[in-house]
Structures are given as C-alpha cells and as structure tokens.
C-alpha cells in the first residue's frame, strides 16, 4: 500500500468508524476491489487529507452536496461522520435547511428524515 493509500485508510477509519470500514472491506470482491482502492486513495487519501478545509467543514460540505444530489444512501453515514467531526445537531439541521433553499425542499425533506433517524439511533443505542 502506498503512502497516500495508507493515509486514506487511516482518515477513512477516523471519519467513518472502524465498523463501517470493516463492513465495506468484508464486502469487497475482486470485482469491487479497484473501486474500494480508488475511494481509499483518492477520496480519503488525496482530498480529505488536504489542509485547505478541516474535517468539520468537509463534513458540512459533504452533507450539503449529498442532500442536493439526492444521494440518500450516503446521508446517514455522513450524519454520523459529521457528529464525530464536531458538527452539532443544530448545525446539521441548518445545513439541511439551507441546502433545501438552494437544492429544493424535497431533497432537504428526505435528508431531514434520514438525519432524524440517525440521531434517534445514536440517542438510543439499544
């Protein structure tokens, strides 16, 4: 593993958590391995490690973009990551509301529903 991939693997685990990364790695096949390697090296090792934005800000931007694009399957994971990166529940709500103004109310409505479910799950770990 090259240095960028190693850094990416570390950041990915720090941001998304060991459980998520372990599940992703366990589900990796010969077919999906090149994509997982690409994500680890390029997304986590080349972009999330850059000094221009801190992780908290990157989480805010990520939530806004996922909401705007309607990438509902990724929102829950990144709400958890945002909480871990120091974004408050109130700030997540503001990000989703603000995104709704510019990306559309249906996108924000779906993101609020997903975000609320994650926050409920985090509050009740049982």
Whole-number mean pLDDT:
94
Q: What is the H-and-E element order? A: HHHHHHH
Question: What general form does the structure show?
Answer: globular
Cα-based radius of gyration, to the nearest Å = 15 Å
Please give the number of β-strands: 0
The amount of helix comes to: over 70%
Helices, by number, come to 7
**Biggest beta sheet attributes:** none
Uncertain runs with pLDDT below 50, 5 residues or more? none
> Helix- and strand-based class?
mainly alpha
DSSP strand content: under 5%
- Report the end-to-end length measured between terminal Cα atoms: 38 Å
What does the model show?
This protein is mostly helical. Helices cover 79% and strands 0% of the residues. The protein contains seven helices and no strands. It has helices at 3-16, 18-26, 33-47, 55-69, 72-84, 89-103, 105-123. The longest helix is centred in the C-terminal third of the chain and has 19 residues, at 105-123. The radius of gyration is 15 Å and the shape is globular. The protein starts with a helix and ends with a helix. The model has no long low-confidence stretch (mean pLDDT 94).
Map the helices and strands:
Blueprint: H1 3-16, H2 18-26, H3 33-47, H4 55-69, H5 72-84, H6 89-103, H7 105-123
List keywords for this structure.
globular; 79% helix; mainly alpha; 126 residues
């Amino acid at each position: 593993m090259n240095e960028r991939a190693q850094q990416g693997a570390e950041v990915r685990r720090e941001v998304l958590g060991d459980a998520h990364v372990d599940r992703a790695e366990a589900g990796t096949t010969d077919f999906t391995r090149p994509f997982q390697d690409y994500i680890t090296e390029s997304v986590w090792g080349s972009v999330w490690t850059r000094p221009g934005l801190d992780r908290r800000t990157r989480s805010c931007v990520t939530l806004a973009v996922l909401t705007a694009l309607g990438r509902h399957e990724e929102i829950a994971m990144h709400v958890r990551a945002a909480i871990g990166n120091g974004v408050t529940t109130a700030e997540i709500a503001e990000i989703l509301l603000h995104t709704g103004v510019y990306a559309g109310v249906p996108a924000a409505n779906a993101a609020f529903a997903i975000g609320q479910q994650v926050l409920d799950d985090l509050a009740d770990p049982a």
